[in-house]
Structure formats: structure tokens, C-alpha cells
Amino acid sequence: MSSNTVSAHPFIPNTPSERDEMLSTIGVDGFEGLITDIPEEHRNSPLDLPGAASELEVATRMQALSALNQDAGSCPSFLGAGAYRHFIPSTVGAVLQRGEFVTSYTPYQPEAAQGVLQSGFEFQSAVAQIFDMDVANAGMYDGPTAFAEAGLMAARISRRNRILILDTADKRLVDVAEAYTRYQQVEVEQISIESVLNGEIPEDAACIAFQSPNFLGRIEDVQGITDAAHAAGALSVMHTYPIALGMFKPPGAFGVDIATAEGQPLGVPLTFGGAYVGLFTANQRFIRQLPGRIIGKTTDTLGRTGYTLTLQTREQHIRRERATSNICTSTQLIGLMVAVYCATMGPSGLRQVAELSYHKAHYLADAIDALPNWEVVGSDGSTFFNEFPVQCPISPAEVNRRLAERGIIGGLDISDVVPRGMLFCATEMNSRAEADRLVASLNDMCNGTAA
Amino acid sequence: MPNSSVADMPDRSLLMDRSVPGRKAINLPAPDVPLSVMPDEELLRGGDDLRLPEVSQLDVIRYFTLLSRLNFSIDTNFYPLGSCTMKYNPKLNDQMASLGGFANIHPLQDDDGVQGALEVMYELQQWLGESTGLPGAGLAPLAGAQGEYAGLLIARAALDQRGESHRNVALVPDSAHGTNPASAAMAGLSVVTVKTDASGNVDVEDLREKANEKTCVFMLTIPSTLGLFEPNILEINRIIHDAGGLVYADGANLNALLGLVKLGDLGVDICHSNLHKTFSTPHGGGGPGAGPVMVTEALASYLPEPVVTKNEDGDFRLGRPEHSIGKINGFHGSFSILVRAYTYMQSLGGDGLRAVSENAIINANYVQARLQERFDLAVDRICMHETVLSGKRQADRGVPALSIAKRLLDYGIHAPTMYFPLIVPEALMVEPTETESKETLDRFVAVMQAIDDEIDSDPDSVNHAPHTLPNTRLDEATAARRPVLRWKPVDQ
Amino acid sequence: MYPDDLKYSSEHEWARVGNGDVAEVGITHYAQETLGDVVFVELPELGSRVDQFDKFGEIESVKAVSDLFSPVTGTVTAVNEELEQSPELVNSDPYGDGWIMEVKLDDPSELDELMDSESYQGTLE
């Protein structure tokens, strides 16, 4: 094999003559002299991959692949269920253009990372304010993993080993919690709201963990659940939807101990489910049990304010197998998007987004419920935010197929939870005209006769 | 050093301290639907208890732009941070990830509406499988640590299936990153540490003694955190397999192996790869990452959900493998990062990926060769993609590795990784990466030599570095003793 | 640096028995210096039981965490709550204001298992 496999590539500056010069400084005859530790019989096994492509060629192929997708930015969409299409102000994209943020590393050298650290402190501040909780960490992978880690944290604090999840929570939350606890002598079980409110909580319950708004969009009795959990010596762990907190009482107002959320709705595009950021907040007295990174404010040797990673002894790089989690990221860049979003929206903007979503969803629910054969399920006076289940006259899969033909992305098929059920979502992005078009399409689809 | 005057100091006050009631950075449309009845008052948030900044749009932009300038980054600085692979992050990657057909698709859309996205994932699975020689690839893990956890869950599930759930020990070399034992603990495994010998290799005799009927996995970082390729890897893998365990390779440093050797060929059963290292996706100041997990054909049915398959019609489908360890996160992985990695792999192609590894190794050895006169090496032998120096000689002259690292910042070079691996005293771990030119490396060597000179001429100045950054050294003790973790109004 | 009236353990804790069967416990000068800036001390609960040479808590510096091992067996009768606000007292005054807990001894004779100042210092060389 020649030592000049590829002569020049835009990402690799060494020229053939420089390589030769460097190899001679190192004191080997050729590159092969550097890899003699690799067993000879397996060395230089070629990669069966296409050859290098130019920037133009790669962009052309990727644009073609992108165009194969039904883009929720160019057609109406009524999907939610954990990932939401909300308005993203121009400031978010503008800040995200800063390579100084995008291409920096974890701020282990705080003097050289004040931008990452101070913006992360802004993130923690905004999240703590929105949740009305004492502290927020610098970010988790995503909402479900934050929720799972909250359950584990509750188990550490309470020294009990049963995580009880209210059965109205998204099944994804339960699945991930189960995967996170599988070998940790911690059980994940589901419990009904009746059992919780009647105080039928087992003695070894570490926490009552619940989602509000729940999977079907409804607001839970947060105070009732929290009081019942505390009466049983368990913690109250709430998973929420941060946009809803623009109008609904936050977890801190109910005495919730740990609150988590998917951060994506706060300024992050859908991007097929990731990368997102998990929001993680808690009561002050639990700070030494938090998973993940935390940024703190301090001073430098000249007395000036500065920021640094803190409480690091909780983390894997110090405590190793006894760490509070194995996580070594804060999903900082997505957290930055959230920080810029919150700074841009401010208190009135966040409230408006919440209220717009609420009104649009209620308009849509009323219109669908008024159709013959289509029924909003469980509209028994309980409050919902911006998602609601509908019982369809035909199979939800068929509904979505027919909507797709009309260029509409329908709701989520939840026939495993509600018979012929579909979960619809509306946000400030859905115009009245879009909602009317969806309703007309649903009406056309069945012509008043149940199929 | 000249004293900086107040006029030089940017105003770094927090957004809430810049907030003026009534100011705003965005307008939203008025409702175009009739207003519904609002929920019960007692469910609603009070009028003024949501305290977020009230600032103008220019305030937002100017503030975050200011903050960006208080940062080192690959785009602005040489960043030889060992084990972190701070290589150039091609701009095309970011541009492709922001295409509407990728950025605006919902994870729960029907498969038919997202065929382009699924094709990206399918191809990336194939290419990562080819690159590692481990053909089963799962893209779900959201970071290296999650890939590692997924790998351990796979190992446990496969052994459970074999009726060997009593195997509850993870063997971990003493040079390992802290994540290895932390992940092992999460997977319910007890950690038994394996020694490193004087040449920096796994102590094979120690391993032989410790591998037994309790062994679930051996967690091998390859190349090791000392930047070395384990020459006894075939024997090591045999020992583990003979004991009935599985070999898990921490592929954090896969950037040294592309086209040179495939982990699967060496007998590795499971590995993960940090796409934000080897495959050039941005670090973002600490995430998001992506940590796909790759396994042998035999273990493919245990991969986390979802895996993309291609059916006879050529359609792509998200699916759950038969014995899947299940869902380890909300949706399908860090898709925006997967798009970037796939873009990168296309840009390089097979030969280009090999050139990546070749040049990463040449650059590291070049730096090692040029610095070894002034700095001790943790192990004096050819390295792979990174070299571990020891600042012992400098520490004896009164300047610890920490101060050398801090002083580098004054020269506009990011510090190497310090005090890791733990088994090397005064460790300075240097990883130049293949995207840096010889001129940059020569300047780095010159700066390291200059600092070494300063240790004799002005050690005090080195010990108080940095002098030219937005902050001098920070009081981390007070930060941890009395934590201030968020903005608070003065009255609280 | 290593007062003569104290008893020392090989894990770098000290015990001071004043009158009767109550011992004050803390960490030694050597331990605090090795740890560096102490940022947190996990105190045992009042009334809890501690066993000689067994773990009773943790002590943290900025980038390290160590277990605390009790030099004596007995019941915790007092803890130094000052350390919650000012863990740095362990650095500045390890044998005084930086004490950690007070233990009512089950069996004062087990103090013989500990070292005097001179032998403890011998182990540090």
C-alpha cells in the first residue's frame, strides 16, 4: 500500500511531501511502521464503501433524499404525542450559526468556555423559572431519559425501589424507565389515579411519577397526586410539556419534588425525533442527587463573576461506578436553542404560544366532535391543553392514509389505547384554514356513514 | 500583564438583569379562531409569576453573540484535547441537517412519508457496520455513554437468553474512562479492574486470573486511553470467549482504525462509536452526541429499537428486532447528528476514511516525536491517534500539568486533556486530529517549548495563567460549597 | 499537626475521648491536605450507629470524593452542622471547628486498636 492513498482532501491538509517529512521525523520508513501493533492477518482490511464525493455531489444526493420526506413545514400536520411543531423565532437560527458555540467542547476549561457556561446558566435559569422549581441541571438527552433518571433519583433519595408510574403516561416514558432500571433492583410498575388518590400506595414506593398534560392531553390532579405521594413517604415526579406551563400552574406550585420535560417544543425543530434536550428540575435539597451536568456561578481570582461546572463529584468521571448517572453530556447546543427561545419569547410570548395552542386545539376538537360519526373521547369536563383523542368511524391507519393523499399529516394512531382512536394535536402553527381543511377531509371521508 | 480597565470589559450581566418590563423580542399573531372557555382559574398560572427576560430582539442577538466570543472552539482555535477528537466539523454537514425534509419531519409520521430519512438511517447502519466489521448496527443511542449502556444491555440479554444470567461482572482496565464503570453499574454489573502493564497494555496474566464463569463482558477501549493499540488483542479476546464472556469495545477512538482494521475481525462482539468524534459531528459545547451500537450478526436481534430494514419492494421500515433490549430513549436517535455523520462519510468515501486514520496517527506521532525531548511520555512507543505526555519533569520544577494547560490558553491553544488517564501522573493527553496542518502542529510544539522555558524564567506567571481570557482562574471550591445555579432576584 | 491527645486510624481519621465514653471524630491534617478544598461533608444521622473502621459518610473536594471511616463503634450523639454551610472548616481547623461527629462509645477499650500521634506519623512517611 502506498503511503499516499489519497492525495488531497479538503478536510485533510497534509501533502504527500509533508507526510514523508513527518514520517522521517517520527523515524519510520513509511506509514506501515506506525501500525505494527495491529495483528498482521487483520491489518489493512479495505472498506467496501463508495469513493469520496465532492461537496456538490453530496449536497445533490442529500437534497434528493430530503425531498422524499413529507415535510411538516410545507403541509398541515396534526401530530404531537411527545414532539411538537411550534414557532421558532429567527433569533434561534441566528445564534446557532455561531461556530464558536457549535464547535466548542464541554467546558472543562472554564476560562476558555465562558460563552458555553454563561449561556448554560441562562438555560438553567429559564428552565427553573418556567417550572417554578429551585434548580435545573444543564440538560439531559431527551424528555423520556430525563423522566427515567428522575425515577432512579427518587429511588436513591427515598432508598426505596419501586417506581410507580401513573397509567395515563405515554408508554414511551414507561418503556425507557424500564430500560434504565432493568438491572438495578428497581421495579417499574403502573398505577391508576384512583389508587393514588385513595392512598393505595405500596410502602416501598419511591415515587409517584406522572405526566401532565398526560398522553391524551389532559391535565392531571397534580396537587392530589403530590399530596398522596408525600403522605406515603414517596416523592412526586412530574413529566410535563413546557409550553403548557405558559398558562398552567407549574410543578413548583404544587410541591412536586422532581419535574422533567422534553425541551424540544422550546425552539427546537422536529428533526425526526432528535437531537432534543431533556429538562430536569428539582427541589434544592436534592441537588447532590441530580444526574448530569450543573453550571454554577462563582468569581475569579480578580473577583469578577464567572461560571464553571460544579458539583462534579456526582459525575462518572470522578465517582465512576458510584456516579448518579453515566451521562457525560448536557446536550448543550440544544439547550442553547432553548435559552435563546426563552429570551426571545419572554413571559408574554410563552403565555401567548400556550394560549394560541389551547384555543386552536379546542376549536379543532369542537369542530371534529360536531361531525357525525366522529367523537372526541373523554370530553367529560376534564381540562385538556392542546391534544385530544378522537374515536374514528374507520381505522385510524386508513384515516391517515387518506389524509396523506390530500397532503395532510394526520394524528397519531392510538387504537392500542382507545378503540379506533386517533390523537390530534394543534399548536399556534395550525391556522384556522388548516383546521377547517382537516375537518372537511374527515367529513368527506365518511360521508356520514360508519364504515 | 497590563491591567484591563473597565472600558475593556464587556458587560456580562445576565439577561434578567437587563430585563425591562414591557420590552419584547418577538410578536405573535392574534388568534384566528374564536376563543374557547379558559380552564378553571385554580389550574392557571398567576399573571406575573413567570419571570423570563423582557428584552428587545437586538438585545438577544447582541448578548448571545457576545457570549459566543468568550469561547474557544474548533472554528477559532487549535484544540488538541485528547480522547475528544476535536477535528474540523464540515459546514456541509450542518447545512444538510437543516434541509426542510430532514428538519421538519415528525418522528411519528407514517414510514411512507419519511422514506428519505429512513434511507439515510439504513445506509448509515450499513456503513457503520462495514467500518467496524460488526454488521448489526443500531442508531438509537443518543451519546457514547448511552451506546455503551445499550451494548451492556445487549450482552446481558444475550447471556440471559443462554441461561447465564449469573454472569454479573464487567472487567474494566484501570486506564478506562469513568463512563465504563458507571455504565456497568447501571447495567447491574460489578466492576473488576484489570491492571495495565509497564508498556501500557492490558496485563494479560491479570486478565486470565480474573476472567471466569462470572464474567459478562470485558470492556476494552481500543485504541486505549493511552493512545495505544492493544497488541495482544487476539489473545485477550480468546481468554474472554473461553471464559464464556463477551468482548465490548469502547469505540470512542474509532478514528484511529478506519480502513486499518475492523473490530469484528479481531473477535470483538459489541462496540459503540461516538459520531461526534470519529465522524465529525459538532460537539456543541457538550452535546448533542450520537453513539450507535454495532454488534455481530449473532447479536443483531438484541439491538435497541428502532432498526431500519429494507423490504423486498425496496421500502424502508422502522422496526423492533426480535429480542430487542427495547427503547432507551424517546424516538429514533439523534437524527440531526446521524444526517451529519452520513454526509461526512459520503464526503470521505472508503479511501478518505482510511486517510483520516492514517493522518490522525501520523500527526499524533509527529507531535510525540517532537515533544519527547522536553516532556516525558507515559509510554515510550509509537502511538495511535493521540499521545499521552507526563508533566513530571515540569511538576518537579514547580509547575503542575494544570498550569501548563492553563498557560496554553494564553497562546490561543486549547488545553490538552489533563490528569487522564488516572494511571499517568501529571498526564497531558494530546490528540491533534488529521484536520490540522503541519504548520499548526509545529506552532503547538514551539508553544509547548516556550512554556517549558517559562517554567524556569517565570514559573509564577505560568502558575497563575491564564492572563488574557475573559476570566482568570475560577473559584471552583466556593461554587461547590455554596452553589448558585440560577439567576435569582435580589429580594430572594 | 498531629496532637498527642488524639488517637488515629490508618484511614486518616482521629478520635478524641474527653471525659467518659464519648469520642469526637474528624479527619487528620494529612487527609484534609491530600483532599484539597473540602466542599461537602455528608454527615451521619443523629442517633445512627457507626462501627469501627466501617464507612459512615463521604467527604468531597472539588474533584475527588472519599469515604469516611469511623475510628470507633457506637451511637452518633452529635454532628457538626456548621459544616453544612462551611465545609472549609475541615481544612482550616481539622482538629477543632472542623470536627465531624460525636460518638457514644460501646466499648472504650477498642481505642487500643488506634494509633498514637507518633505511630500515625510513622505511617505517613
Outline:
With 451 residues, chain A is of the alpha/beta class. Chain A is built from 13 helices and 13 strands. By secondary structure, chain C is α+β, with helices and mostly antiparallel strands.
Residue-averaged pLDDT of chain C:
93
Q: What's the alpha carbon Rg of chain B, rounded to whole Å?
A: 25 Å
Amino-to-carboxy terminus distance of chain C: 14 Å
The tally of strands of chain B reads: 13
Oligomer: heterotrimer
* Strand composition percent of chain C: 25-35%
The chain-level structural class of chain B is alpha/beta
- What percent of residues of chain B are in strands? 5-15%
Describe this structure in words.
In chain A, strand 12 (412-413) and strand 13 form a beta hairpin. Chain A has helices spanning 16-26, 55-67, 90-96, 99-102, 114-131, 143-158, 171-181, 193-197, 222-231, 316-319, 332-369, 396-405, 432-446, and strands at residues 135-136, 162-166, 187-191, 205-211, 235-240, 258-262, 278-282, 295-299, 305-309, 375-376, 387-391, 412-413, 421-425. Chain A has 13 helices and 13 strands. In chain A, helix 3 (90-96) packs antiparallel against helix 11, helix 5 (114-131) packs parallel to helix 11 and helix 11 (332-369) packs across helix 13 (432-446). In chain A, the strands form three sheets. In chain A, strands 1-7-6-5-4-2-3 form a seven-stranded mixed β-sheet, with helices on both faces. Chain A has a four-stranded antiparallel β-sheet with strand order 10-11-13-12, covered by helices on one side. Chain C has 125 residues and is α+β, with helices and mostly antiparallel strands. In chain C, the strands form two sheets. Chain C has a six-stranded antiparallel β-sheet. In chain C, a hairpin with a 4-residue loop joins strand 2 and strand 3 (22-27). The two termini of chain C are 14 Å apart. Classes of the chains: A alpha/beta (451), B alpha/beta (492), C alpha+beta (125). Chains in contact: A-B, A-C, B-C. The interface between A and B is large, with 207 and 199 residues.
Features:
heterotrimer, A: 451 residues, alpha/beta, seven-stranded mixed β-sheet, four-stranded antiparallel β-sheet, 13 helices, 13 strands, 36% helix, 13% strand, globular, disordered N terminus, C: 125 residues, alpha+beta, six-stranded antiparallel β-sheet, three-stranded antiparallel β-sheet, 4 helices
